[in-house]
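Researcher: Here's the sequence for the chain we discussed earlier.
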Amino acid sequence: MTRTIDTERLHLRPYVASDAAAVAAQIGDFEVSRWLTRVPYPYTVSDALAFFDRVADVPLGFAVCREDALLGCVSILGDDLGYWYGVSHWGQGYATEAAQAAVGAYFEDNDAPLDSGFLSGNEGSQRVLEKLGFTPNGIIETDCMSRGLRVDNHRMRLTRTQWEGRS
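Model: Thanks. This is the structure I predict for it:
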């Protein structure tokens, strides 16, 4: 079962079925789904519930909440960090704060490098990864389900040494 983590402003917890409508509404906004590779558009409550089932046993898969409102998601599946947030929650530091907590938890038990990435044009996500200490690790072309086309995915990597040495 996924654990919970509390940061200064956020509560990271497992998804519950009652989150499905909020998740569907936020990812269902094309301004969110266009930056995600494996998310269909439109995105439905059924899609959200299926996602919850897939991540139910992921130790570092979290609904990110503030004062009981679901803001988005941060997860580490294997050695890959991913996240998304509703548009109204962009630019407030939530992605960085939650990702710092998840990455810290990852490196508590793991020495393997952590990978992530951002799609071309997503400067906000690029800044989050750079703040965490990720460095460029190549560009791959990948499918973007919501857009129905192939896009450039800028891959980034973070080692335990980089994480521990960040200022």
